[in-house]
Sequence to fold (257 residues):
Amino acid sequence: MADKIKVTVWNEFRHEKTNDAVKKLYPDGMHMVIGKALKAAGDMDVRYATLDEPEHGLTEKVVNDTDVMLWWGHMAHHEVSDEIVKRVQKKVLEGMGLIVLHSGHFSKIFRTMLGTNCSLKWREMAEKERLWNLEPGHPITEGIGEYIELPNTEMYGERFDIPTPDKLIFVSWFEGGEVFRSGCVWERGHGRIFYFRPGHETYPIFHNKEVQKVLVNAVRWAKPRIMKEDICPNTQPLEKIEPKHVDFGKAGILQSS
Fold:
């Protein structure tokens, strides 16, 4: 039997403690609902990490033992340590998959990986969303029909300040008229990144079976194809280099101790 995919679900886990509407939907936290769906797929081992744990639950041991990380944040992006962001970024560049959910668009890790502001329009009026499947042959949309319809959502609208995706998987239409690039993939270094828009905390989005199916598919797609340490080595030549009769000198680089 193949080894299971090692998944870490990271959740800010603040709204569920302070907002009664969110507590009712996710009494144990959104991360637990997401994780339960992933575990049910049968090929994933799931651990959880939250903001208020030491090192936000993302110790070197945890990050180094993760194949795919899911990230949900909203009200406390600024509280995430830059050191932890760099730790996660390094791991993505080395091959770890990263799935960023909903308001995670403004997270430090997402903005760091993409290099843009990741801003957008938004409105919270419980409007209908139709999430159109643009790539029915993509692994992320396996088992998903022509669209996913969500009866009540928070609107995210264009312009979404992101680099042009390597592939656009989903586009949303909202009852109020806006559209949004709701499912986007990129490669950074050796790692794969998927941004998936649905998931506002006051609506039961992560209980939706089709949304859960997308997340299961995305984990399988984002799992590492290679894990390679992100280094910049000075290497010896493969072939013989004839000696030069002019001394050009060497600049080299400063080596950190």
About this structure: Residues 5-116+183-222 form a domain with the Rossmann fold fold (CATH 3.40.50.880). The CA atoms of residues 16 and 26 lie 7 Å apart.
